[in-house]
Amino acid sequence: MNPPRRSALLALCALGLAACQPAAKTDSALERIRGDKVLKVGIEGTYPPFSFQDEGGALTGFDVEFARALAKRLGVEASFQPAPFAGLLGAVASGRTDVVINQITMTPERQAAFGFSQPYTVSGLQIIVLKDRADISTPADLVGKKVGVGLGTNYESWMRANQPGATIRTYDDDPTKYADLKAGRIDAVINDRLVAADFIKRSGEPFKAAGPAFSQQKQGVAFVKNDKLKAAIDAAIAAMRADGELLALSNKWFGLDATQ
After folding, report:
1. Which CATH number fits domain 123-216: 3.90.1170.50, 3.40.630.30, 3.40.190.10, 3.40.50.720?
2. Which residues fall within 8 angstroms of residue 183, CB to CB, at 6 or more apart?
3. Which of 161, 206, 219, 256, CA to CA, is 20 to 30 A from 124?
């Protein structure tokens, strides 16, 4: 699915630099969050259908509604702190936010450096091209092509590890890379399959999904490693699964079960 998509700390972590690992907290972050009655959530805010501004300028999307529901189950309110994807994990590592809820793919490198909840969405990678493009339908077709990805995202990491023959162009946001795709400055974009389906449907632009999704990705809530906080977040997500709230959110935003 998935960051990003996207501060130097996240980019280095995505490449597996162990030195960037934040120290695990021994104090109870959970008690502090409940004492403040606020869960500070790092989020992009420019990543539909997960987080974006509606016509009235209000923050909305699947991850926004999920974060609010999660905070409510913890007995607090969600306070969103939008930032470019590449700075989100840096913000949680430094304590500026409590968690990141932004389709953060649970890679081994990130799991070594940060705590993660159980997965709350499962997705894959999708190639997006102009509608009249017929020569790109698989990752192998990207050799020698200019491919747009979010800076510091799992999409960037996957491309560098698996398709070094492509020319990789990194971006801080989605609109800029799609503008470059439309203008022919790049040949393809790699994004989350759910994002791709929603974007192609809504945009009215001459884009299409090229070939099937690949490389299954699991996304979780990210935070500085803390056993009590993890247990509380996992329990809240499990309760959302059990009573159907998580599935209802998925059906609302995607029209399918993207939660497992």
Report:
1. 3.40.190.10
2. none
3. 206
